[in-house]
Amino acid sequence: MSDVPNQAFRKTEISAQTSSALPENLTKNEPAILSIEQLNIYIKQLLEGQVGMVWVKGEISNFKAHSSGHFYFSLKDAKSQITAVMFRGHNSRLKFKPVDGMEVIVRGRITVYEPRGNYQLMCEMMEPVGAGALQKAFEQLKMKLKAEGLFETARKKPIPTFPRHVAIVTSPTGAAIRDILNVLSRRAKSIQVTVVPTIVQGEAAAPQIREAFKKAVALPGVDVVIVGRGGGSIEDMWCFNDEALARLIAASPVPVISAVGHEIDFTIADFVADLRAPTPSAAAELVSKSAGELGNKVKSLDRMLVLSFEKKMKYLREKMTGLSKRLVDPQRRLQDLELRNDDLLNRLEFAMNRLLTEREHRVVLLTEKLGDPQDLIDEHRKDLEYLKSHAAKALQLALEKKSAKMFRLMAMLDSLSPLKVVERGYSIVTKKDEVIKSARQVKKGDLLNIRLAQGSLTAVVDSVKEE
């Protein structure tokens, strides 16, 4: 309904544009000689004015996406075809990518390209035939299985990093199996590959894929199963949206990789599989590690190990240096104590001499101040003698304490010496550089070195008794 006014407007506009270019007698049904341009204009007027907007169903062929963003293609059926164009402003709204062989319904206008005299269908809208019903079924099954938890990441099994046996469920004659085998032969020739053949398109495909998948999972020693095929239309890949197949993949005890179609294609198998690969070739790359990648990984780990070892050694050297600085030689410690003792004695003697000097000076002052009373002199002399005696006793006591402490430390140090223990009748038994502490460390026939208080000897073990 909405297109009718526009069609009328375009018809009127075309008529106005071409009436001056066409001979006047042409409109009066009189014979006229036309130029090629006039003929094409006349045909364009008739077609665009009379046909207008149409709905057309056909199969896409010779599809080309131009760098300008426009789509150029042909629509055909069993008996005929027509060229078509879809400008960028209209095809940018498509939710799918047209490809050769796809059956579509388009809405557009018939136009004539005057310079060549070609007529074509200028498309404004396009949708795949049957895509609506299939898409609805796809979404319904997707929501059902998702609600059951079959898409949860927690239930998916990890893919082995280095699988030894890979099973491939696909068509033995398709491009997908050639791509997978090429990648595996190039990256990991040691992997055992078992192809479980099946058809991957058509109504009978889903049951055959299920049977092939069961055989693949049952193979002895299989590490991972790849299920997939090359690209195609939604109808071609519909067998991988089979609910029974999805449940088989979800319940598989062997990790499964889904590699159906191209990167933009999604099927139910992609969602329930343990891993989705964008293409069959990508699936082969996921299960095979190239020698170059492994070599680079080893080199990287080697560099990390060397750096870690150097860092650890640097830390240990710094720690050893710090401990060495903190460790004090016992002899050096004893010398420090002796120097400390001498210093204290010097300070004590200095203090005593200073005290005596001060006292004597005070006596002189008092003597000069008080005169020469014999009693006062005798009294101060007694005090002086007492102080001298007290100072001498204090000095002697301090010296005795310091000497006793010094001898106690020397005795303690001497008692800790291993040689002192040997002098008390013990001996040190070694096997090579190892000190023997237990009978478990030797066996019959071993050669032992025995260090005594005076000299050493070598002995051979005749018997061993463990307590």
Helices and strands, with pairings:
Blueprint: H1 3-18, H2 36-50, E1 53-65, E2 71-76, E3 81-86, H3 88-91, E4 103-113, E5 118-128, H4 131-147, E6 165-170, H5 175-187, E7 192-197, H6 205-218, E8 224-229, H7 243-250, E9 256-260, H8 268-272, E10 275-276, H9 280-287, H10 291-326, H11 330-370, H12 374-415, H13 418-423, E11 428-431, E12 434-435, E13 447-451, E14 456-460
Parallel strand pairs: 3-5, 6-7, 6-8, 8-9, 9-10
Antiparallel strand pairs: 1-2, 1-4, 2-3, 4-5, 11-12, 11-13, 13-14
Helix pairs in contact: 1-2, 5-9, 6-7, 11-12
Overview of this structure, please?
With 467 residues, this protein is an alpha/beta fold. It is 48% helix and 19% strand. The chain is built from 13 helices and 14 strands. The strands form three sheets. It has a five-stranded mixed barrel with strand order 1-2-3-5-4. A five-stranded parallel beta sheet has the order 7-6-8-9-10, sandwiched between helices.
Briefly characterize the structure:
48% of the residues lie in helices and 19% in strands.
Class by helix and strand content?
Answer: alpha/beta
The Rg value, from CA coordinates, equals: 53 Å
Strands, total number: 14
Question: Taking all residues together, what is the mean pLDDT?
Answer: 83
Low-pLDDT regions: 1-20
Helix content: 40-55%
Beta percentage is 15-25%
Distance between the termini: 111 Å
Which sheet architecture does the biggest sheet show?
A: 5 strands, mixed, barrel
Give the overall shape, derived from the CA principal axes: elongated
* Helix count from the secondary structure assignment: 13
Strand order of the largest sheet: 1-2-3-5-4
List the secondary-structure elements in sequence, H or E: HHEEEHEEHEHEHEHEHEHHHHHEEEE
